[in-house]
Amino acid sequence: MADSFPEIFKGLRAETQKAVVGYDEMLTHVLVAIFAGGHVLLEGVPGLGKTYLVRVLSQVIGLDPGRVQCTPDLMPADILGTHIVGEDENGRRVLRFEEGPVFRNLLLVDEINRATPKTQAALLEVMQERNVTTGGERHPLPEPFFVLATQNPMEMEGTYPLPEAQLDRFLFKVKVPFPDIESLVEISRRTTGFEEPKLKAVLTGKNLIKWQKQLSLIPVPDPVAHYASRLILATHPEQPDVLPEVKRYVAYGASPRGLQALIKGARVWAALHAATSVSTEDVRALVHVALRHRIILNFEGEAQQVKVDDLIDKVLAKVMTPAGEAE
């Protein structure tokens, strides 16, 4: 079964790119996260097609989409659902739970940093526990369930930065780059007409769950797990022999969830390249998307405008691979 995974993955990506121009690397990372069963934070300026990407993915993967447009006045009940008064078959008044937009397979949370901390906290339970608790009742979400959240990196009024605990719930943080000139020209050709491209579903939700279970069985050799763990420790300023830049600019390093994200993503990456086990190269390929939102800069790092991706590059260069070579 795993032998056919590269074809399935490439088919999904090709079908999606009928509607989404370019963004091959970003799209690959998003699909890897979905097969790994994790949520994704998409960061980019407005107008790059992040919202449209989620709509296209729901069609191609065969998932039921939902959308939440975050605003400062958005309340938790607006996204989770609420109890309303209704009548039963005997005409008696009863309370029933009206499901909110989170009860979908693929939830787009647009401009998540515009929601207030109260609403962001409500999303945190949904992302981690995959159920909604209200009125003393637990309501499980449909399976599979993914959150794809968008975030504007520009500092603007009315935004609330995500707390570290919620950032940690995202498997990957993927940056959406501005298109190059060839992509811009192609966008003008494809998206300025009246008809949108017709897309077909390559997968179903049930098949996706089967693939997730199958991919989770790909073995991770002990040396590779030790290497991934050393990468995590190398981001912590209190550890011995860390880079001077990490000790100077980092307040908190990546959490154990960062290690889980590396291993889960590396399994999918290995299967994508028809490998039978995870290698250090599979881990290294996903370090930036798995850790960039989990390394928290201190005041000096923020003041110096240190780029976390540059720190990760230096960590990759320093930490020795199992072969004993610093790559």
Q: How are the strands ordered across the major sheet?
A: 2-5-8-1-9
Unreliable segments of 5+ consecutive residues: none
Oligomer: single chain
Q: How does CATH name the architecture of the largest domain?
A: 3-Layer(aba) Sandwich
CATH topology of the largest domain, by name, is Rossmann fold
The residue fraction in helices comes out at 40-55%
Number of domains: 2
Strand fraction equals 15-25%
End-to-end distance, in Å?
A: 33 Å
Word description of this protein:
The protein is 43% helix and 17% strand. The mean pLDDT is 85. The protein is built from 15 helices and eleven strands. It has helices spanning 5-16, 24-36, 50-61, 76-80, 117-129, 164-167, 181-190, 205-215, 222-233, 244-249, 256-272, 280-284, 287-291, 299-303, 308-318, and strands at 39-43, 65-69, 81-87, 93-99, 106-110, 131-134, 137-140, 146-151, 170-175, 250-252, 296-297. A five-stranded parallel sheet has the order 2-5-8-1-9.
What are its keywords?
5-stranded parallel beta sheet, Rossmann fold, alpha/beta, 43% helix, 327 residues, 17% strand, two-stranded antiparallel ribbon, 2 domains, Helicase, Ruva Protein, domain 3
List the SSEs and their pairings.
Blueprint (H helix, E strand, L loop, with lengths): L4 H12 L7 H13 L2 E5 L6 H12 L3 E5 L6 H5 E7 L5 E7 L6 E5 L6 H13 L1 E4 L2 E4 L5 E6 L12 H4 L2 E6 L5 H10 L14 H11 L6 H12 L10 H6 E3 L3 H17 L7 H5 L2 H5 L4 E2 L1 H5 L4 H11 L9
Parallel strand pairs: 1-8, 1-9, 2-5, 5-8
Antiparallel strand pairs: 3-4, 6-7, 10-11
Helix pairs in contact: 2-11, 9-11
